[in-house]
Amino acid sequence: MLDISAEQNRLVTAAFRDEMRHIADRAAELDEDRSFPSEDIARLTAIGALASPFARIEDGERPVAPEELLQGLILLGTASLPLGRLFEGHVNAAELIRRYGTREQRERVGRDAKNGCLFGVWNTEGAEGVRLARANGHITLLGAKTFATGAGFVDRPMITARDEDDRLFMVLPRLDKTARADLSAWRAHGMRASATGTFCFTGLVVEPDDIIGKGGDYHRQPHFSGGAWRFCAVQLGAMERLIEEARSSLRRSGRDSDPHQRARMGEALMAVETARLWTERAANIAEADDAPLPPAAENIVAYVNLARCAVERAGLDVMELVQRSIGLSAFLRTNAVERICRDLATYLRQPAPDRTLCEGAAYALRSDQAIGELWR
User: Fold this and answer.
1) Is the Cα dihedral 351, 353, 354, 358 positive or negative?
2) Using CA atoms, how far apart are residues 191 and 48, in angstroms rounded to an integer?
3) Could you give all domains of the chain from N- to C-terminal order, each with its CATH number?
4) In which residue ranges of the chain is pLDDT below 70?
5) C-alpha Rg value of the chain to the nearest Å
6) Is the pTM above the cut of 0.90?
7) What are phi and psi of 127, to 5 degrees?
8) Are strands 197-200 and 168-171 parallel, antiparallel or unpaired?
9) Are strands 119-122 and 156-162 parallel, antiparallel or unpaired?
């Protein structure tokens, strides 16, 4: 079982927990197209939470223990899924820079984070993608990223871009004052406050120090797939919140003694605990060794892939059970459950779920180990 010690507790502080309650209270006000939790980001900066994933990475050390990060992401998901998604991207950027950046790059981003810079990782793009183009002795970017969370608000986005030899690099461009974000197409069912959209990078000059790592590092396993446990943790937080809301509703209406409601509650509790166990185990496996080699890398990827699928299934089950327990009022916009379900249903739509499931199963089918020993 994961245990958070006092020495590790630099993210999940009393101030952080208190702020989560205020963030949860503000979440409904932000449930509009083109909105963004600017006040929440400012508050996370003020209590040191925004800088915590970057603390001490100049020495290549892991800044926040996985146990603490897990709990922090769950709490963020309980309070606000859009904010949880933004913070998860912030953490992803920190992890990539810690693992592949130079000491000078790590020092620079650490200073930026302490000054309140929000980081993110954007890799989705159209057919043409983003290119590194050479012209007049300079390297410039050409192209745009799509489905970029926090477009126009993230201060330091890490993106992927290909050079003339089609090698994929991580780039941390320095943005200018040009209006490059377009949120007009983001009319999503949920996650409205995530400011997701298209961001054009054409014309930005790339300095050598803006390139993180070597070509191909971004997709290096098991870290590329293994980090998925972090968004599972945010989703888990939302599931816990939904069950809390259902419990409160049943108590208020005096239906908590109804056997059918108790049966639904029991099923929801089993689903959320299943998600928790998978997520905790995925975090333990993915973060146990910072530089695993095959076949250990394949083992990690397979487990985290299956954890993704288990958490998705649990989330879908929890939403259905909570909605059936509360009834029609769960679909009223005045009810927090309506918003949380929309946000969670949208956030659960992670890339390639069928391939992820099949890859996890394929690993077990190739292995000669006993099933009970695959991840022991």
Assistant:
1) positive
2) 25
3) 14-118 (1.10.540.10), 122-215 (2.40.110.10), 221-373 (1.20.140.10)
4) 1-9, 289-294
5) 21
6) yes
7) -60, -35
8) unpaired
9) parallel
